[in-house]
Design a protein that fits this description.
- The complex is a heterodimer.
- Chain A is mainly beta.
- Chain A has a single domain, classed as OB fold (Dihydrolipoamide Acetyltransferase, E2P) (Beta Barrel).
- Chain A has four helices and eleven strands; from the N terminus they run αβββββαββββαββα.
- In chain A, strand 1 and strand 2 form a beta hairpin.
- Chain A starts with 7 loop residues before the first helix and ends in a 7-residue tail after the last helix.
- The chains are: A mainly beta, B alpha+beta.
- Chains A and B meet through strand 3 and strand 8 of A and helix 7 and helix 8 of B.
Chain lengths: 178, 508
Amino acid sequence: MGTEAQKPGDMLISQGGSGSEDLQVVEFVLGDELFAINLFDVKEVVEYTRITKLPSTPSHIKGIIDLRGEITTIIDLKVRMNISANNEIPDESRRIIVLDEAILNSKIGIMVDDVTSVSTFPRDLVERTSSAISNSTSSYVEGIIRKKIREREKERTDLVIWIDIRQMVSETDLGGLA
Amino acid sequence: MGGTSLYLGGTTVIPMLELQDYTGMFERSPVAQAVIDRELRILVVNTAFCSLMGYGKDQLLGMKLTDLKTRGLIRYLKDTGDSCTTVLSQKRDLVFESAFETASGVHYMLQSCQPVLGPDGEIRFIYNSYTDITGIEKNRKYMGHEVDEFIAVYEKMGNGDLTVSHSVEKPKDTDLHETFEILARLRGSVRTIISNLQVNIRDVNKRMQDLTSSAETASRSLGDATKSVQQVAQDAQKVSENADRASQGMEQISKAMQDMSASVEEITSSMESVSVLSRETNDLSQKGAELAGKAERSMTEISASSEKVYSIVTDVEKQMGEITKIVGLIRDLANQTNLLALNAAIEAARAGDAGRGFAVVATEVKSLAQESRNSAERIEEMIANLKKNTQNASHAMGEAKEVIGQGSRMVAETLESFDRIAAAVDKVAKSASEVAAATQEQAATTQEITASVHEVTALIGETVKESADAASATEESFSALEEISQIVQNVSTLAKEALQANQKFKVD
């Protein structure tokens, strides 16, 4: 698959121009945690539409939708990443992040609980995952972002899990759809 | 025998008659005749003698008269001892009675023995004649017997038993019939007398008994009367005592009447107080009724107001529901705006430097959308709170409605109660005035009673006097009764004595 040089962070930096050290991500929520993927892997965010289920597909394959005349495969990221949350959000309230077609030459969307924002983080706030983590089953976790939040004149830091979505999708069994 | 004279008894000489005449007369005479010589040998007998002795002439002639006796031809029942031998020795006539039984039966005889003297004065013959007195004897015996019975009966009667009776039986012997008739007549006469006597005695006895019993009754009555009089005396005493007590009672009544008079005055004043109080109560209850009426009207107004409030609250709830809908719409819009801003930011970022300005706009839009969403959420919160409040208000209004209903009912009841109180007070006032009237009547009555009591007291005084008089009168009548009793006792005694005297005569 893709080389090391093609990492989103690099791309953002190289394409970002000013502040090349900055990381541009789309933040989203899965269960109780915040996640982020590279902005340039995202094409758009859409609301939930009815998903047509397909037979004989893995449980993380939600099904397919017709997005402006194109059949798009939907992966339930929570199922794919084995995240179990206390509060089950109904599908109708969840959102679908449609990935850039360039990634796998196929139309893929990932279903998340909510999309919160498009953010830019300086590199010093991003900590690359240690080899111990990347060598584990979660090889698609690229790093942890320390997100500083100001709330009622108090500053706290949330940890946002930075995911290499290309890596993950490439490792994902698409049930012969892609 | 053909002599010219015949001496019979030595005295009678019947010159005209011939011997055969005498013989015939001798022969036919019913008197039994026999002539005997000095040796007592039977010389001549007539037929009557033969039939008397029961032997023929031939048997008798030549027989000694004494042989009749000694040979047992006749049996002497009665022998006086005089006989022909006596005639022979004494040369005089003998007449005696004898009774003997011969073959022809028992004969009672009047025997006469007459010596027939010769010229020498010596006894030549003895003439015996036997006059049959059997019938006379029979009558004599019969009569004697009957007279004995009569004597016994009359002795008994003489002793007082007048119930003794005896009958004279008619004898079979016809010779006695005449005597019987005489005796029967005698008895009948005596019986008539006795039975009259009996009737009289019975009558007298009865009267005596009646008298005795009357006397006893009188005596008893007198006893009763005495008792009664004593009772009267006691009663008079009691009357006197009772009168005393009554007098005391009357005094007490008089006192009680005075007390009652006082009580009546108290009642009258109390009734006046009651009247005043009931008037005041009536006024108060009327005021209360008015107030309750006002309260009722107020309750009705409150009810209407709360009804309005309830409908307003309901309206507010409805409108808040609409607001909630609108807020939902706003949130949807905010969400979509947010999405649009996201996508715009993504596009701007992809555009690089060219999209930088647009990225700022997108961020602004996004924050606006966020604010809209926050505002919507706040509104939703507020609406939720409001909803809770309105629900509480609604609930409270429901409760208020119930309470008001209860209040209304209670006010109505109060009103009713006041009406009833007014009616009751009215009745009380009426009753009080009635009581007052009755009390006045009572006062009048009390006065009347007092007057009556005085009268009664006077009457009782008189009664006491009269009862004392009655007591003395009773004593007098008591002594009079005792006297009468004594007299009646005497009468009774006399009657009893008379009765006893009469009871000597048994009449029943």
